[in-house]
Design goal:
mainly alpha
Amino acid sequence: MKKFLHVILYIVTALCVGFVNGFFGGGGGMLLVPLLIYLAKLPEKQAHATAIPIILPVSIASGITYAVQGIFSLSAFIPTTLGVVCGGVVGALLLKKLPPFVTSIVFSLLMIVAGVRMFI
């Protein structure tokens, strides 16, 4: 029964993360990482690494939905995709090398800055 409740909790959490990612066009990973750490009890680096392949199909589905609705910019998509892919490779390599407390501090600061920017 406990395992069943965890599965239900993961599904409800995933629905919320998918909604946030689709509604805002991103940000699901920022929500997913803490949830994987606290709900799934994953180590922080593993939570970051796990969030990426989870968010990828969600982002693709959201992107297709936006494209079908006509609210998509191909001129911004191509150069941004190149930058994101290069940055993703560098970030993944750094995640492997940095100690967990550093990634925790950087992630927390990034979330705080993003939250403050929302109000400005």
